[in-house]
TrEMBL record:
CDD domains: cupin_PMI_typeII_C. Residues 4-269 form the Nucleotidyl transferase domain. Pfam families: MannoseP_isomer (PF01050), NTP_transferase (PF00483). This is Mannose-1-phosphate guanylyltransferase. Keywords: Nucleotidyltransferase, Transferase. Its EC number is 2.7.7.13. GO terms for molecular function: mannose-1-phosphate guanylyltransferase (GTP) activity.
Length: 463
């Protein structure tokens, strides 16, 4: 069985810590077994390893999240990259075609799909392992996992089953109800309905045949070319609700969707992350990513979240409404994690004559490097403030240290590698200060060293 983890959504419900580049699953606010902070995706990947599923798992994600995934899970994690966000049906279609035409997976083999961010016990993934057996034994087109409800939630969809077969532990599915009111939810639970946790499995042949019937390519390269024309629709609406033979495996353990501030803070091991003070307040959480102190005095049942993207002060019960409000905001992400480290936007100014100035603080992890690249529309000035590194500029490599100021004209080829953890202030000046204005020439530092002439022996300088 191959496992596909979906990681493609944008970050709105946990604003201001989440944004278009850093979705909720990447926020390091949960506590690991060794007491360190970890993200939802790190927790799930660790759990997959605990039950022996990590080696057969692949993550389907958008281009904007690749660096974040590699930063948190490592460079070797298998990834299927969507060229753009198109919802879960296109993402699962692309993953299925990749497994079929690139990986050579057989049509009778089973594919299981699940979100990358459920908050569950390890034994939930033991249930996931049973999906393969259930698909093959039941002959169903789709097999879902349904969570036994602990209260009549109006936030989740419900799977309504028919009677269970006497010789199996799965149920046939009668129908689905999407996010009912509390009164309806009580009625559904009496009927034995289960929460839909977004986990399902199918034989690969089912998805490939469905794509062929829709006239869509089943070769990966061809589907990539047409990806922008695929309908922007969820797998639930496009496939699940139109499939007749579906069964569901019930799960009676702990499960929670940490999609809002009130649910996320319930699972945090501490009520404060970052600089600040909470006093005379009950059930209040403070998460502060800035270097300035935040004081919360006499405010109970609240979430206070502070990041370069903004500041949120909200009653916990009202916090799910934040998504509706921030949809109106139109600003670039002010903080991102990358495969080489991170950056934070410090200031952005656009002048009347069209010139723009963008200032960032950039951190490069020891041993990592920015690609050797060039820009068409901007010049840059880098001021090293921490650590040591190697700086490449137009064919030459030299050693850099705190206090060095590096000027990079428009069109100049440049890159940097951190010898120790490195930080510098970058000031961009130009007419189009966008992330897309990057022409990458070499990605690894080995390529840089092989193809560039070193103007000095860096190692002798370090000594």
């Amino acid at each position: 069985m191959e496992l596909v983890l979906l990681s493609g959504g944008s970050g709105k419900r946990l604003w201001p810590l989440s944004n278009d580049a850093r979705s909720k699953q990447f926020l390091k606010v949960l506590e690991s077994e060794n007491g360190e902070l970890q993200s939802m995706v790190q927790r799930v990947w660790e759990q997959l390893g605990n039950v022996g599923l990590a080696d057969s798992a692949v993550i389907a994600t958008s281009k904007s999240q690749v660096d974040m995934i590699q930063s948190q899970l490592g460079q070797e994690v298998p990834i299927i990259i969507e060229p753009m966000r198109r919802d879960t049906f296109p993402a699962i279609a692309l993953a299925s075609v990749y497994l079929y035409s690139v990986e050579g997976m057989g049509l009778n083999e089973v594919v299981a799909v699940l979100p990358v961010d459920p908050y569950v016990e390890d034994r939930f993934f033991q249930r996931v392992k049973e999906l393969e057996k259930t698909v093959l034994e039941s002959g169903a087109d789709l097999v879902l996992i349904g969570v036994e409800p602990t209260y009549p939630s109006a936030k989740y969809g419900y799977i309504v089953p028919t009677a269970k077969s006497s010789d199996s532990d799965y149920f046939k599915v009668s129908h689905f109800t999407e996010k009912p009111n509390e009164e309806k939810a009580i009625e559904l639970i009496k009927q034995g309905a289960l929460w839909n946790c977004g986990v399902f499995a199918f034989r690969l042949d089912y998805m490939i045949s469905l794509l062929e019937a829709k006239g869509l390519p089943i070769q990966y390269d061809e589907l990539l070319k047409q990806y922008g024309q695929l309908p922007k629709i969820s797998f639930d609406y496009e496939v699940v609700e139109k499939t007749e033979h579906i069964v569901v495996l019930p799960y009676d353990g702990y499960w929670k969707d940490l999609g809002t501030w009130n649910t996320l803070t319930e699972e945090m091991a501490t009520n404060q992350i970052g600089k600040g003070i909470i006093t005379d307040s009950e059930n209040t959480h403070l998460i502060n990513e800035l270097d300035i102190p935040v004081t919360v005095l006499g405010v109970s049942n609240a979430i206070v979240a502070v990041s370069p993207d903004g500041i949120l002060v909200s009653d916990k019960e009202k916090s799910p409404k934040i998504k509706e409000l921030v949809n109106e905001f139109d600003q670039r992400p002010m903080y991102e994690e990358r495969r080489w480290g991170w950056y934070r936007v410090l200031d952005y100014t656009k002048f009347e004559d069209g010139r723009e100035v963008l200032t960032k603080r950039i951190g490069v992890t020891a041993g990592k490097n920015l690609s050797y690249q060039m820009h068409h529309y901007r010049s840059e000035v880098w001021t090293i403030i921490k650590g040591e590194g190697e700086f490449a500029l137009d064919g030459e490599i030299r050693f850099v240290k705190p206090g060095d100021v590096l000027e990079i004209p428009i069109g100049a080829k440049h890159g940097i590698r951190a010898i120790t953890d490195l930080e510098f202030i970058e000031v961009q000046t130009g007419t189009q200060l966008i992330e897309e204005d990057i022409v990458r020439i070499y990605m690894t530092w080995e390529e840089v060293e092989k193809n560039l002439l070193s103007c000095r022996d860096v190692r002798s300088i370090i000594k």
